[in-house]
Specification:
By secondary structure, this protein is mainly alpha-helical. Helix content is 49%, strand content 9%. The chain contains six helices and three strands, in the order αβββααααα. It has helices at 3-17, 67-78, 93-107, 112-119, 124-134, 138-151; strands spanning 35-39, 42-45, 48-51. It has a three-stranded antiparallel beta sheet, covered by helices on one side. A hairpin with a 2-residue loop joins strand 1 and strand 2. The radius of gyration is 17 Å and the shape is globular. It starts with a helix and ends with a helix.
Length: 152
Amino acid sequence: MNQTEENSLLALIRESLTSNGQPTIISINVHATGQYIAHVDQYYQQGNFVEAEEVKETDIPDVLKTEPAQQILDKLMKAGLLTEDWQPVDLTKPEQALLAKIISDRLEISDVWQVFGALWHVRTETLRTYFNRALDQRRSLDFQEKVKNILG
């Protein structure tokens, strides 16, 4: 995000905090696609504010709408790793790739990179590359252990 985009986002936050003379609670989720949820009804996308209806939402794949998938999601949400719509929370790209693989292994999803690449707006090749890099990192082992403990 460049300085102009940052200033625009900060201006919206200030405006939201003082709307109607009352403090307003807002949350900002930063997605890898450059989408920033800046207000309940507006998104910050590629340097511009757009109405929520203009931003394409990704449908959750059917393989993640099953009861076993919901159980996994609930545990990962409780641990603060995913949002209710399966979006990663403060995870590095290698951690995202590892998480996608672990979830896919548990749910027997064969096309892991396609499913999670589309869901997280990451190219399948990029997600696979991050997974391969993660296998060489010591902290990745710690993350895998953490996720396995969360999932039981």
